[in-house]
Amino acid sequence: MVRRARKIDRVLAETYPDARCELDFDNPFELLVVTVLSAQTTDKRVNAVRPTLFAAYPDPESMAAAERDKLEQIVGPLGFFRAKTESLLKLSQALVERYDGQVPGRLEDLVTLPGVGRKTANVVLGNAFDVPGITVDTHFGRLVRRFGWTVETDPVKVEHAIGELFPKRDWTMLSHHLIWHGRRICHARNPACGACPVARWCPAYGEGPVDPVAAAKLVKTEGRA
Q1: How far apart are CA 183 and CA 43, in angstroms?
Q2: pTM of the model
Q3: CA torsion 94→100→105→107, rounded to 10°?
Q4: So what's the pLDDT on residue 107?
Q5: Tens of pLDDT along 71-127?
Q6: In angstroms, rounded to a whole number, what is the distance separating the alpha carbons of residues 59 and 188?
Q7: Interval 201-211 mean pLDDT
Q8: DSSP 197
Q9: 221 pLDDT band (50/70/90 cuts)?
C-alpha cells in the first residue's frame, strides 16, 4: 500500500510539475479569506473578485469595519453572499480581537476562527506558512478512495489515514497533486481512465472510458472554470 501510494504521488508530481494552490493570494490573510470564499464555487470565480475585494479591504482591520452591503456586493458573484459576508466579518473581527490582526500559524488556533475548519486551516498552513498539511477537499477524498488508500469518508479520518502513508514533508504537495489530478483527469463522473498516468496502479481503472481517444476528450487542461 505505502509503496504503491508513494509511486502514484511521484508520477503525479512528474505529470503536474506546476501543481500549486489555484487561489491567488499575496499574504496569509488573503489566502485565508479566499479559501473561505471558495466554498461551493470555483477558484476562478474567487480569483476574479479578489482584486476588488482586497483593494477595498486589504487587512483584517478594514474588513472588520466594512459596511455589510458593500461587502455583499463584492462577494455577490460567488453565491451564498450573505453567509459568506457574515463569515468574513466575523473572521476579520476575530483576527483583530484575538490575534492583533495577524493570521495565526498554528492549526489549533486557525480552527477556532469563525468559518475555518481543518481543510481551510491546512490550505493556509501549507501554502502561506510552509507548515505541512493535508487538504481533504472533495477531489482529494474521491481520489484516495479510488486509489484504495482508505475507505474512510470523514475528512478528519481521511486526513489521518493518508498522513500515515506519506512523510509529513510531502503532505502539502501531495494535496496539490491529487487535487490537480481530480480536476483535470480523475473526474467524479466519467473519469478519463484511458488518459490517466497512474492507471496501472489504480484499482478503480475502468470506471471511465479506457479508450485513449475517448478519454482524451474528457481531459481538462486547467482546473474548473
Answers
A1: 11
A2: 0.92
A3: -30
A4: 97
A5: 999 999 999 999 999 999 999 999 999 999 999 999 999 999 999 999 999 999 999
A6: 37
A7: 97
A8: T
A9: confident
The beta strands (E) that lie in 4-161 are given as none
- CA 102 from chain centre, in angstroms, equals 22
Of 84, 137, 168, 211, catalytic: 137
Q: What is the mean pLDDT of residues 126-134?
A: 97
- pLDDT-based confidence at 225, cuts 50/70/90? very low
Residues 8 and 177: beta-carbon distance below 8 Å: no
168 is annotated as an active-site residue: no
Distance from C-alpha of 173 to C-alpha of 163, rounded to nearest angstrom:
12
Q: Give me 96's grid cell.
A: 483583530
Determine which one of 109, 119, 168, 217 is catalytic. Answer: 119
- Cell numbers that stand for 182 in this block: 481530480
On the 0-12 / 13-18 / 19+ scale of CB atoms within 10 A, 2 is: exposed
Burial 65-83 (b: 16+ CB within 10 A, else e): ebeeeebbebbeebeebee
Q: What percent of the chain has pLDDT over 70?
A: 98
Q: How far is CA 218 from CA 56, 188, 191, in A?
A: 39, 12, 7
Cell (9 digits) for 126: 501549507
CA dihedral of 196, 7, 1, 132, whole degrees rounded to 10:
-100
Neighbour-count burial for 87-98, b at 16+ CB within 10 Å, e otherwise: bbbebbbbbbee
Residue 119 annotated among the catalytic residues of the structure: yes
